[in-house]
Amino acid sequence: MNGEVIICGLGPAGRAVAHRALAEGLAVTVIDPHPERVWTPTYAAWADELPGWLDPAAVAVTVPAPTAWALEEHRLDRAYQILDTAALQRALSVDGARVIADRAVEVDARRGVVTTVSGQVARGRVVDARGLGRSPRRAEQTAYGILVRRDALDSEPPTLFMDWRGDNGAEPGAPPSFLYTVPRGPEFLLFEETCLAGRPALGLDELRRRLDHRLRGRGIPVTGTEPVERVRFPVEGGRPGRGRFGAAGGLIHPATGYSVAASLRAADTVAAGATPWTAGARAVAGLRRAGLRALLALPPHETAVFFETFFGLPTPLQRAYLSGDADLTGTLAAMRALFAALPPRLRRTVATAVVGGSRS
Questions:
Q1: Residue 254, Cα to own-chain centre: how many angstroms?
Q2: Which CATH superfamily is domain 2-132+237-271 in?
């Protein structure tokens, strides 16, 4: 079998590259053990992150100004969009591609050869978008969420990008978690208790307990029969490299866990055979990894203080750090401003984590 572009993995990153390569008239082969698997996670992005070619039907809800809570309430002056997962999968159609329902076991992007578990061999330009495997050495993000009917609520709470308030029943000194609340279309709201990053991360049973405690305290009706969303994935481990794309290729933002919008933005570049990893993008990725080390080093009771400082930054600096994939100047400015505004005790913690990690 020969194909000009061989794409391993049909998650959002792999489908995005396949879709854009097909749009350019390229011959495409896609390899995935379950190519018809239906996506179920909730995906979201800042509105200014999504590429212009994406079908608008893939966006379920646009929130003009979501809320963040740390020590105080912050309205984020930036539109936030929750994607319609099924519509996104349909929008990233791979009709016209050769589909191999098999597992890739040997992927050699340098030689352009992929071998599947059944022994099939595909040759061409290889894009490995199979994601990242779990490892005890990798920090993970975990979350436990439920879908609550909107018509069951007396009043609808605001969209919460992050809510670090301490009403989740966590023990003093325990690793922190935040509440994420977004509309999932016209019928449901997603309430999700999230461990942003941990090595190890909080377990799903603990997050479920915290979510139940938090929602009952806020008067949100919980019956125990709500649809559940469970999340667990590494936020580190991906590295830019020949043929790797999506999470495996380093496109996960280690401070948020977001990667779908970055993969969509980079899909045209990768489909064309180029790389999104300019010198600036590599430098920004290194700074973000340093930011993850700082997050992991924070004492639990200081996490809300850290995010209070971050959400107090001007919107352009927040945007630069959260979304400026190749904006080295903006990312550096955001990190310098954040460091300068932190209390002295936290500056010491952050500096030690960043410098210590850079020497390892």
A1: 8
A2: FAD/NAD(P)-binding domain (3.50.50.60)
